[in-house]
């Protein structure tokens, strides 16, 4: 049975630079936003908060949805459905160990990101930045999380 992988990403801008992670995938250094998979019994927004902390050691509070993206990896049946958020960057917890495979959190301008395009993990990275720069923001209320553990109550 086919189903897309549900993922989240944080689009964080500070002083004209964006927060990215450098991660080692199959021996190659790749760039991505702080991003990852939604886990069982986890809301989409909560997943973005968790993934940002795990990959960058920064606290993050989503304030708006930038966009929803679908991407199928060429030559595969692997499809990602990404929810990208912008929000408030909180405290940096330098003592935290970053997720396996994450080598560093880095700040890059859009031009620096383009200069490293060969390292992009997916085409979604630049698309998310460009949508953010275009001012795309949608209220978090678009996402309605019905928690089955609470008889379908909205959480």
UniProtKB/TrEMBL annotation:
GO molecular function annotation: nucleoside diphosphate phosphatase activity; ribonucleoside triphosphate phosphatase activity; thiamine diphosphate phosphatase activity
Keywords for the protein's UniProt record, in alphabetical order: Hydrolase, Magnesium
Residue span, Nudix hydrolase domain: 1-130
Pfam families assigned to the protein according to its UniProt record, in alphabetical order: NUDIX
Magnesium in keyword set: yes
EC assignment: 3.6.1.-
Top-rank lineage group of the source organism: Bacteria
Cofactor dependence: Mg(2+)
Cited InterPro entries: NUDIX_hydrolase-like_dom_sf (IPR015797), NUDIX_hydrolase_dom (IPR000086), NudJ (IPR033713)
Protein family: Belongs to the Nudix hydrolase family. NudJ subfamily.
Subunit relationships: Monomer.
Name of the protein described by the UniProt record: Phosphatase NudJ
Organism encoding this protein: Chitinilyticum piscinae
């Amino acid at each position: 049975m086919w189903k897309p992988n549900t993922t989240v990403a944080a689009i964080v801008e500070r002083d004209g630079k964006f927060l990215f992670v450098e991660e080692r995938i199959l021996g190659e250094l790749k760039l991505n936003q702080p991003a990852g998979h939604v886990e069982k019994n986890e809301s989409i927004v909560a997943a973005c908060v968790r993934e940002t902390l795990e990959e960058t050691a920064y606290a993050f509070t989503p304030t708006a949805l930038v966009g929803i993206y679908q991407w199928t990896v060429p030559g595969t049946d692997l499809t990602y459905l990404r929810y990208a958020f912008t929000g408030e960057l909180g405290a940096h917890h330098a003592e935290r160990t970053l997720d396996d495979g994450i080598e560093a959190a880095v700040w890059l301008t859009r031009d620096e990101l383009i200069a490293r395009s060969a390292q992009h993990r997916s085409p979604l990275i630049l698309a998310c930045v460009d949508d953010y720069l275009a001012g795309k923001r949608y209220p978090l209320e678009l996402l309605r999380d019905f928690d089955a553990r609470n008889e379908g109550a909205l959480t």
